[in-house]
TrEMBL record:
EC number(s) on file: 2.7.1.11
Role this protein plays: Catalyzes the phosphorylation of D-fructose 6-phosphate to fructose 1,6-bisphosphate by ATP, the first committing step of glycolysis.
Database matches in Pfam families: PFK (PF00365)
Site feature: Important for substrate specificity: 111
Organism: Leptolyngbya boryana NIES-2135
Gene symbol of the encoding locus: pfkA
Homology family: Belongs to the phosphofructokinase type A (PFKA) family. Mixed-substrate PFK group III subfamily.
Active site (UniProt): 135 (proton acceptor)
GO biological process, one term: fructose 1,6-bisphosphate metabolic process
Keyword Amino-acid biosynthesis annotated: no
Major subcellular location class: cytoplasm
Name of the protein: ATP-dependent 6-phosphofructokinase
Amino acid sequence: MKTLERLGILTSGGDCPGLNAVIRAVVSHAVLTYGWHVVGIPYATRGLLDRAMMPLSLHGLDLKGIDPLLTMGGTILGSINKGDTLSRIQEVLDGYAALELDALIGIGGDGSLAILNQLATQGNWQFIGIPKTIDNDVACTERAIGFDTAVNTITEALTRLTFTAASHDRVMIVEVMGREAGHLALHSGIAGGADVILIPEISYSIAQVCQHLAELRDRWGRRFAIVVVAEGAHRSLESANQSCEAIKCGMGQYVANEIATCSPYPVDCRVSVLGHIQRGGIPSALDRLIAASLGKTAVDLIANGESQKMVAWQNGHAETVPLDAVLAKSPCSVDPASDLVQTARALGIYTGK
């Protein structure tokens, strides 16, 4: 087992629930099992540039025995998802050396992990990555930290909106995050009882969306509907050649405008853009469980001398995957032939082609 004087940990990219639970697991296992000193690097690589660190102790944040990290959203270390770190590589490497770090654990999405992996290669760091993103688009892991909580948050919002939609005979259009991946929209749409789910990976027709809404109305007597739209969804097949000016308002509003234009009968549409609400809140039980397992495993990998690996969640437990293999397959999109897509369609949800 490797003996370390100082283990660093940082969070990079957009925040999400569960990051503090990972920090808690890393500090607990590193201190209790290996007796290491653990320091947090504030604001990701900016902390390395500024040569800043904060000591992390096992009970440093306890409030009369209450451990807040398990349930606290966001990250106590702060995070950034902008800047040009790779233009200042030598400064970052010098900062790592100045902080006298023996190894580093980085919690981030595919973009952050790619940058940290490049830094680790050039600086010969011992580095282990842990995936986090509400988009769930990091390859080689079934779940990234934060995804489950975000799905729960969106699902609750859809449930609440359903009652209002039904009361006023409205079509509620809910725009969710996910960048160019539709995992959030697909999972939450199925769980939240959506009637239409539009994601980047599957083309769709506004005419067919309107036909589906009309069938709900005319055949089943449903005068309301819930439409989930991923922020990265593309324009409909009918408007594929139109100028991008049409969607500067956001995909949710774009779909609402298209439905209003295309529908054979008047439709009262309302658009809700959940935005950063999806990133906030107390982490779910599953995110806490995954955070504990991935954090513990990352520390063990450091102790065993492993480097440039990512700890993934596969088949209900932590697995180790080479970072190069992860980054080669990321970002990971929804497979249009997947079981979840087929499940949505079997439930009568319109998902496009």
